[in-house]
Design a protein that fits this description.
heterodimer, A: about 110 residues, mainly beta, 6-stranded mixed beta sheet, 5-stranded antiparallel beta sheet, globular, B: about 120 residues, 7-stranded mixed beta sheet, 4-stranded antiparallel beta sheet
Chain lengths: ~110, ~120
């Protein structure tokens, strides 16, 4: 099935460092979303972006909706051990009107204390 | 309040058997979604319901997969003649779907998933 191109695939960083990950698509989406998934759990929404060019923050997280509506990035500042997990981008709302989400393959983040 | 719940949490079955996976959405949520997540991959859409009807079933991989939501609340995903390639985590999500998604905020809340292993 369709998936977004998400990079990097994995990251190993020291506590306190900043992190950046991004997502691209060949399709336009009306909404971009960033989720975090812990082992044995379902994805949890971190940030939702609804307008092209929008820059949104949620605590130490900042995300932007690309102006072309085909890309997005997520930044995490001053990482802490509990940031460990898999981060997924997801696109929502394409032509055709389906409510389904299209996910990237994820970025696995490891934070060394 | 209670989140999305899924049962069982784990299911081990033999190739060729029939399985049912259950999802209890958040009370009052009108939309319910099924996704499948293979190891090392993001969730992939299977089907979603608006009320009792399947609004989009384009993600179901073949006719061995079927889902129902007879009363507009609980949903069951049914897999016939299971194959080893069906092994994955099956995630359910629900949302309070408004008429116009341009309003935003129709967050999909995910359950913990059912891990299906086909031997």
């Amino acid at each position: 099935g369709q998936q977004l191109n998400q990079s990097p695939q994995s990251m190993f960083i020291q506590e306190g460092e900043d992190v950046s990950m991004n997502c691209t698509s060949s399709s336009i989406f009306n909404t971009w979303l960033w989720y975090k998934q812990d082992p044995g759990e379902g994805p949890v929404l971190l940030i939702a972006l609804y307008k092209a060019g929008e820059l949104t923050s949620n605590g130490r997280l900042t995300a932007q909706f690309g102006i072309t509506r085909k890309d997005s990035f997520l930044n995490i500042s001053a990482s802490i051990p509990s940031d460990v997990g898999i981060y997924f981008c997801a696109g929502h709302g394409t032509q055709g009107g389906s409510e389904k989400l299209v996910f990237g393959k994820g970025t696995k983040l490891t934070v060394n204390p | 309040g209670a989140g999305v719940s899924q049962t069982p949490s784990n299911k081990v079955t033999e190739k060729g058997k029939y399985v049912e996976l259950r999802c209890d959405p958040i009370s009052g949520h009108t939309a319910l979604y099924w996704y499948r997540q293979s190891l090392g991959q993001g969730p992939e859409f299977l089907i979603y319901f608006q009320g009792t009807g399947a609004a989009d079933d384009s993600g179901l991989p073949n006719d061995r997969f079927f889902a129902v939501r007879p009363e507009g609340s609980v949903s069951t995903l049914k897999i016939q003649r299971t194959e080893r390639g069906d092994s994955a985590v099956y995630l359910c999500a629900s949302s309070l779907l408004r008429q116009s998604t341009s309003l935003g905020g129709d967050e999909q809340f995910f359950g913990p998933g059912t891990r299906l292993t086909v031997l």
